From TrEMBL:
It comes from Oleomonas cavernae. It is a single-pass membrane protein. This is Energy transducer TonB. GO terms for cellular component: membrane. Residues 144-234 form the TonB C-terminal domain. InterPro entries: TonB/TolA_C (IPR006260), TonB_C (IPR037682). It comes from the Bacteria. Gene3D superfamilies: 3.30.1150.10.
Length: 234
């Protein structure tokens, strides 16, 4: 800008002293201002901020747990018992002199007498063998089955009401003694059920299920028949 100003001033002075021919109008000089180039500093590297530090929480403090003391077990301590002093040794027994054994006198020599004649022993005859009477045969299977069937049917129809209400069941063993004509001589409950009502009902059934038929001629005066009654609710 200073150069242009001085140039304009010189042109003006020159026009005052010298008559110069009229020159055509010049176009005004356009001044272009150029800004000086500024040296820019080099771009600085952009540094990323460091990541935030991760602070780990301190580990929880674990208190040391002491084990419980061992249980105190009461023990019976036996006090030593002093042994009594040993008894004094017994006094030595006085030695008794054994009397001398008597020497038997030697028998005088005797002349042998005439020996008596040997009589042979008389043996008694063996006793006659006792023949036992034949044992009576057992009750026929068919007869025993007939009697047991009659007893079971009677017992089923006479189930005690008290046992039904209490839902009692059981098996009762019995023994029946019969005369040869089928007459009942005795009834015995050999294996009770544990329920009085059932045991009594079984004895009544064995006693009253007859009349039983006469037994075959087996040579006996009475016969025993064993059986069982089973009471079971439907």
């Amino acid at each position: 800008m200073s150069v242009a100003v001085h140039l304009g001033a010189g042109i003006a002075v020159y026009s005052l002293t010298i008559d110069a021919p009229v020159l055509p109008e010049e176009k005004p000089i356009e001044m272009v201002l150029v800004a000086p180039e500024l040296e820019l500093p080099p771009p600085q590297a952009v540094t990323e901020p460091p990541p935030p530090e991760v602070v780990e929480p301190p580990p929880p403090e674990v208190a040391a747990i002491e084990p419980p003391p061992p249980p105190v077990i009461a023990q019976a301590i036996e006090e030593p018992v002093e042994a009594p002093p040993p008894p004094p040794p017994p006094p030595p027994k006085p030695k008794v002199a054994k009397p001398p054994k008597p020497v038997p006198p030697k028998p005088a020599a005797v002349a042998p007498a005439n020996p008596a004649p040997v009589v042979p022993a008389v043996t008694a005859p063996p006793p006659a063998a006792v023949v036992a009477p034949p044992k009576p045969e057992g009750i026929p299977t068919a007869y025993a089955k007939d009697v047991r069937t009659k007893i079971s049917r009677y017992a089923i129809n006479k189930y005690p009401r008290a046992a039904v209400l209490k839902e009692q069941e059981g098996r009762i063993g019995y023994s029946l003694t019969l005369a040869p004509d089928g007459h009942v001589l005795g009834v015995e409950i050999t294996k009770p059920s544990g329920f009085e009502a059932l045991d009594n009902a079984a004895a009544e059934a064995v006693r009253n299920a007859g009349p039983y038929p006469a037994l075959p001629s087996l040579g006996g005066t009475q016969y025993r028949l064993d059986g069982a009654i089973v009471y079971k609710l439907p």
